Amino acid sequence: MDKHTGMTLIVKMITQVMIGFLLVFGAYIVLYGHITPGGGFPGGVMIALAYILLTLAYGRKVVESKISGVAASIVDDLGALLFWLVGIIGLYIGGRYFYNFLGKGEPFNIFSAGTIIISNIGITLKVGMSLYAIFLALAILQRVVTEEEPKEEGE
To answer: Between 78 and 138, whose confidence is greater?
Structure first.
């Protein structure tokens, strides 16, 4: 990583510490969203915040080398497709849209909610990458709008 791009060394060090916590906590919120408050949307926001924090600390080019805007769009689309497939498979198997085709387990167990956990993962991918893509688009738009035109000689 380039030492001269992004923010100060202190911000970069704190970001390195926080990224792991944000990603693990986001995954926890997604996986236990049917047992505790949480789910796909708040988990996706936490994961998007990790990428946004990385972008703010290190600069856009460093983060885009890890996950580009195109890759974020593909993951976003895969999340929507996964959520849609859960609904369609339920319609095909049970005759109702989003029918729980996996059955129920023991209460307060991670696999107790049937298809909800799969839906949460789909929503997480959709929300997380959408927010990250929106952040990138706004960052690019801000740069385009605020860039000054080059001055001609003699002005």
So the answer is: 78
